[in-house]
Amino acid sequence: MRWLHALAAAAWVGGSLFYLIVLIPTLKRVPDVPRALSAALGVEFRTVVVTSIIVLVATGAILAFDRLTEVEPPYAATLGVKVVLSVWMFALVRDRRRHVRVLDALEPRPAPPTTIWGKIIAAVSGYNTLVILGVLIFFLSDLLKVLFEIELRTE
Among the four 41, 46, 53, 109, which has the fewest Cβ within 10 Å? Predict the structure, then answer.
């Protein structure tokens, strides 16, 4: 179960990192990429995301019920934060319309912010928010594993 959960998370977060770091900048530099190819890429990635969400929800529920039998408050609190961040991430994906479009990244944007606060907000908003949440959730998953192993050793 943990392996399937980790695989689905890696596919989604890894794909998002590729999308953000490689695909979007490449498509911006090659403006004559056919719109049909860009749209097809978005549809294919959406399939990965939807499949990952289904696997994550199913395996996450099983893992949570399995581990929540007798856990200490730090584990339960960390799991609660992970679930809240995951729900936020799922909601952001759902809110990005019916399909993920690579073309969204290519649309003209307003002038970049000039203040430090504006630059920080721009850096952690939009698609970047999904990637940041995914990385945070990966960290919390690792922390949960450590907390669970500590609890096993103290019993």
Answer: 109
Token digits of residue 43: 């549809």
Phi/psi-derived region of residue 96, left when phi > 0, alpha when psi is between -120 and 50, beta in every other case: alpha
pTM check: above 0.85: no
Cβ-contact 49, 100 below 8 angstroms? yes
| E strand segments, 18-133 | none
**Cα Rg of the chain, angstroms:** 18
Within 10 angstroms of residue 27's Cβ, the number of other Cβ atoms is: 17
pLDDT (tens digit, 9 = 90+) per residue, 4-43?
Answer: 999 999 998 898 888 888 887 887 787 777 677 777 887 8
Give the pLDDT confidence of 91-100 residue by residue, as tens digits: 877 766 544 4
Rounded CA gap, 52 and 6, in Å? 10
- Residue 124: how many other CB atoms lie within 10 Å: 12
